[in-house]
Amino acid sequence: MFLDRQSLWHHLRRWESLAADADGPFRLRFGTLFVADAETARDVLVDLADKYVPQSGFFRLGPAPLPQPLRAGASHELLKILARHDLRSSFDVDSALHEAGDRCGRLRHQRWGVQVVRRYFAPVIAHQRHSEINSLVDAYLTSSIVADDIVGHAVRRSHRSVPVIRAGFTEQLARLPAQSADAQDLVDMVMRLPGQLSLADRAQLLQRLVLATVGFTGVTLEWVVLLGIQHGYNDPALRLEHVRSLVKEALRLCPTAWRLARVAAIDHEIAGAPVRAGEHILIGTHALHRSATVWDQPLDFRPTRWEKPTRDQKRSYLPFGKGEEMCPANGFAAQALEHLSYLALRHYQGTVRLRRRKPHARTLLAPPAGWTRLTRRAQAERQD
Fold first, then answer.
1. Which helix (H) or strand (E) holds 275?
2. What is the largest CA-CA distance in the chain?
3. Distance (Å, whole) CA 13 – CA 206
4. Cα gap 7→368, rounded to integer Å
5. Rounded to a whole number, what is the distance in angstroms from the first to the last CA of the chain?
6. What is the pLDDT of residues 46-103, one digit of tens each?
7. What is the DSSP secondary-structure string of 94-119?
8. Which distant-in-sequence residues (6+ apart) come within 8 Å of 331 by Cβ?
9. Under 8 Å between Cβ of 349 and 374
10. Cβ atoms within 10 Å of 321's Cβ, excluding its own
11. pTM to 2 decimal places
């Protein structure tokens, strides 16, 4: 089912409905145990984490994660690289939005956010000295992240192109000179990882880091800007504290990572439900974030709910996961979203047009097909 090229949104909505009527975990039609309450989710992710196969969305080769000490060291190095760059002062938002727009100046949903975030994190991903690698990053973004993980209409093509791009990364990594004392970007980081990793392994890790850095953040940026425009937050008086609430509410209502999957390592029980070794557990982030038992008017976009969130709401909010395997750069991702959303909503006048009403769910939960247009406010005022 998960290889279906069409949106999985109707499945998500059905699972939300089943979760609302269920008393604890329940099995989906294809046998996977579905978790949609905060306490059980935290058991799986934190308290009983040793009963599940270790995994990592960032640092893994195929389905197998790197050893935990290596993952911990890589996460620490990633945070150092992100902190080293002053992304806010070096980012040209006008140029980035212009490049992401089509010939009519429209920002097409399900692609423009990743293009802008790609520009934003360009110094982190690959410094200018890596011109050939940067070209491969752009090709990977178009042929895999957008075509497969977001849109999902080019699965066969992306399955052909991704190995070719990975081979290109491998070739370029082999040509790099000796590494400097400190890692400046993700390219340096994957090359400096200790252990018996081949160049092909390091190329695969670089691709996964690009997906995690650009794909998830870019799709969320589209959601924040779209929802901000639709709900009256597209205002020159917008303050940064408002944007923080906008980002949190967008991640609640439309979590880009709409599920977290784990595989049982041993037989055990979770909330009274038997789990066998090798069985998959699906934590429905979207269902957790839309539970009427936790959230007042859960399907409404209400950023003001974050002014005084309850304890249950804080515990049920898992946009970046939880425990040792949560997104290691979640703080930097939130900062990037706040900064970019603030620039777009405060300094640009926005309009949104939707060709469909329903979100598009693939690997990532993306906005409906359509477009957003952003016009600089000074320019918009002259046109008025």
1. strand 273-275
2. 67
3. 34
4. 10
5. 50
6. 999 999 999 888 899 988 999 999 999 999 999 999 999 999 888 999 999 999 999 9
7. HHHHHHHS-TTS-EETTTHHHHHHHH
8. none
9. yes
10. 18
11. 0.94
